[in-house]
Amino acid sequence: MDPISDMFIRIKNAQKAGHETVQIPYAKFKYEIAMVLERSGFVGKVEKRGKRRKKTMEVELLYQNETPIINGVKIISKPSRRLYISCKDIKQSRHGGIIILSTPQGVMTNTEARKAKVGGQLIAEVW
Predict the structure, then answer these.
(1) Which of helix, strand or coil describes residue 70?
(2) Cα angle at 65 between 100 and 74, to 5 degrees?
(3) 78 near 1, Cβ under 8 Å?
(4) Do the Cβ atoms of 49 and 57 come closer than 8 Å?
(5) pLDDT digits (tens, 9 = 90+) for 33-88
(6) Distance between CA atoms of 86 and 39, rounded to whole angstroms?
(7) Are 81 and 121 in contact (CB under 8 A)?
(8) CA separation for the pair 99, 110 (Å, rounded)
(9) How many whole angstroms from its chain centre is CA 44?
(10) What is the dihedral of CA 17, 18, 23, 27, to 10 degrees?
(11) 75 and 7 in contact (C-beta within 8 Å)?
(12) Which one of 59, 80, 89, 111 is most buried, counting C-beta atoms within 10 A?
């Protein structure tokens, strides 16, 4: 299974169940994506936990009037099909959220990538 989609599914399922936090197996790339979600206000604090093989990250979930902040996630790039975009073609999210990109300057949102004038691999759309 794709680890990135697994991370988003864990977050969505935990929010539907009403949990305050969710544990996700740690990987540097997943941590960077979680930090982008934190900067954008979709999740609360993101912390690394554990050592070596048992390393996890704990993501605090945010709610607004007991409804989850994250309404939906669409995974754009999959292991079988990677999609890349230039900085000129970066558009806004159709749902009013953010688009997460992996660029040579790190993982960032569509607005950050447009300001930095860099393109990259489309990861997911979150609204």
Answers:
(1) coil
(2) 25
(3) no
(4) yes
(5) 999 999 999 999 999 999 888 999 999 999 999 999 999 999 999 999 999 999 99
(6) 23
(7) no
(8) 5
(9) 12
(10) 90
(11) no
(12) 59
Beta pairing partners, 102: 107, 121
Which tokens belong to 81? Answer: 């099909």
B/e letters for 51-60, b = 16+ CB within 10 Å, e = fewer, are eeeeeebbbe
Which residue, chain included where needed, has tokens 């447009």?
A: 114
Give me 22's structure tokens. 């969710």
Q: Quick one: which of 57, 27, 55, 28 has its CA closest to 43?
A: 57
As a whole number of angstroms, the distance between CA 71 and CA 127 comes to 6
